[in-house]
Amino acid sequence: MKKRNAVIALLLAVVLFIGAGYLALVGIGLEGSGSIYDIRLGLDLAGGVSITYQAVGEETPSAEDMDDTVYKLQKRVEQYSTEAQVYKEGDDRVNIEIPGVTDANSILEDLGKPGSLYFIRQTDADGNANYQMNSSTYQYELTRSLDDIIETGDAVLSGTDVADAQAGYQNDSMSNQEIVVELTFTDDGAKKFADATTSAYGKGESIGIYYDGEFISVPRVQAAITNGQAVITGESTIEDARELASTIRIGGLKVELEELRSNVVGAQLGQNAIDTSLKAGVVGLILVVVFMCVVYWLPGLCASLALLFYTFLMILILNAFEVTLTLPGIAGILLSIGMAVDANCIIFARIREELATGKTVSSAMNIGYSKALSAIIDGNVTTLIAAAVLGLRGSGTVKGFAQTLAIGIILSMFTALFVTKLLMKAAYALGFKDLRFYGVGREHDPVKFIGRRRIFFAASALVILAGFAGMFFHAARGERALNYSLDFVGGTSTSVTFDRQYTLDELDAEVVPVFQSVTGDANVQVQTVANSNQVIFKTRTLRVEEREKLDSALEEQFSIPETDIQSETISSTISREMKSDALSAVLIAMALMLLYIWFRFKDARFGVSSVAALAHDVLVVLACYALLRVPVGSTFIACMLTIVGYSINATIVIFDRVRENLQIYGSGDLETIADRSITQTLSRSIFTSLTTFFMVFVLYIFGVSSIREFALPIGVGVISGTYSSICLASAFWFVLRRHAAKVRAKKPAAVAASGEAGAGGKDGRKDKKTK
After folding, report:
1. Is 520's pLDDT higher than 60?
2. N or C end of the chain, less CB within 10 A?
3. Which domains does the chain have, with CATH numbers?
4. What average pLDDT does the segment 366-379 reach?
5. Residue 174 CB partners (closer than 8 Å, separation 6+)
6. Mean pLDDT of the 337-365 span
7. Distance between the two ends of the chain, CA-based, in angstroms?
8. What mean pLDDT value characterizes the chain?
9. pTM for the model
10. How far is residue 67's CA from residue 62's CA, in Å, rounded to a whole number?
């Protein structure tokens, strides 16, 4: 009976595996819908739409107003893709680049004219209607020109009076949930809105919200609103409410913009970059599979099959959720494949331990999965907390990273706890019951990690201080402390119109070296413009003499007249607000992780030690950026977040074993308990790091320069995360726990001494029989 059930389960698994693989690799229909080739790609891989707006008005807007405009537009265009980029061009222009789309006109129509929103009262002072519904179109229309309405003061508020607009839910008078758009006004806007709603409520009128030539909402005023907050009801779906809120936000820009130009731009990286990244993925996956099979035998084979299934599911879900994938995103997914075996390593180590005690294979599997469950859940939940906070608080690439991270975590847990287990159970039922297929663990004497803690502390401090010294050295020489790329500090955009169309690979081989010889910097971003000979090169900020030298070199080598070469200073694509959002998101995530660990382990010292180990890893990777001058760009944030998620997982596994050993042996000898726990999980820590490092290593070997800039610090972070989890985290916990024990030991002695001195006189003695 069991054998028959195993065969059925195995056949079902095979069918699902083949089906998922076919969908992921081939897709449905002639266009391959749902396959790996149907995933939405970013600007660097597939290009998209580039739109340039210019500020309207005689005066150049202030830098603060332009920064506010960039940030609000960034929030608006994230509805198309979390990888969309918004940055300043010159002093009065804003450039928007949206990946994965090719219809610039539809984007322009959807965006409308930023900064042109007004709240208009229904009637003027004489009772004449400012707007009314067209009986044929059932749409509200102005009865006179907008300029007249503004001049007579009937446009009671403008978009700049709105501080924020968000879609949400609230309970109505019958306690039923309804969809609303919540408006928050500025202090000045609140006063205007109070006067306008008081007047409108008295007349039983509405206030129309007019944007870019049409009314987007005409809500009837149901009360005088004086607290600076209002809600709009009547939207049929939450998506409509979000669209309305987003339109109100973009209409609330302090700067009114008009379209200057729009282009469909090509991919920033050639096909060679994609091919080498996919080759790296295949080679890395093969290395992981071979390693798992050699080390863990039959369970390793089951885990490898589950890993392939994980890869197929990742492709399908990226399609289903329409996640925009960039080249660093591909690197992140390849890295997550290496990390996906982590849960399997924890389970297999537990199974081998149980087999060493004489348990049967069936019993060892059940107990192994049961004992590994808490470590797997705690490790992945802490990382999911980080992903959730980053997704809610972050913006741009941070939000995209959070999506990919969350998908990877959930899928890895599913494949480890269900798919691998199903395959192992099926293999056992089919006759693979001998211990030699599974391996038997051996008890090792505890390695004295805690006793060497001072050496570890000193080594870590030395590396971190070296990083700060490197930053100080470069700053003292008049350079930036870190090698910031275009994404962080902006640069120069040079538009060149050639006499023919060049492919990206031709540009990389023939033209980019000209830019590199002038700038002395290998970080040159290239974009082609569809259906034209125009190419846009983005470099670090060029001085006047460098621009002249570049113009001369292009004219000499490619016979391009100066009139076909135009240069503009561009701002960073990562704004100050985006940096602030990312930093606050990381800090909130770390605080929540600390609280979760405190709650789960019933001891705040576990949480503090985990966060201290995370901080160490971040500082070590920062030292890598400083000393090796790795460019700090958009992948920097993703790299740091990857290290945080990776490191906390490894630390939780060790702390889970510490918690278990405390229950078994008590808290008498903390040093031995910590050493035993680290030793018991040492193979898992090393093996997981190796599988992850395989993926990082092949990415570095096969990848293009932008991938190598991501893989190098990630590799350093993997090594640092493993080191901190093994050598530092438990040492931090031990020091905190021992310090607390010393404090408790001193307090009773002090109280007793004080009491005896007071009762027994000068020498502190007292007749014990006296009560």
Report:
1. yes
2. C
3. 2-39+270-437 (1.20.1640.10), 43-114 (3.30.70.3400), 117-252 (3.30.1360.200), 450-467+575-744 (1.20.1640.10), 491-570 (3.30.70.3220)
4. 89
5. none
6. 86
7. 77
8. 84
9. 0.74
10. 9
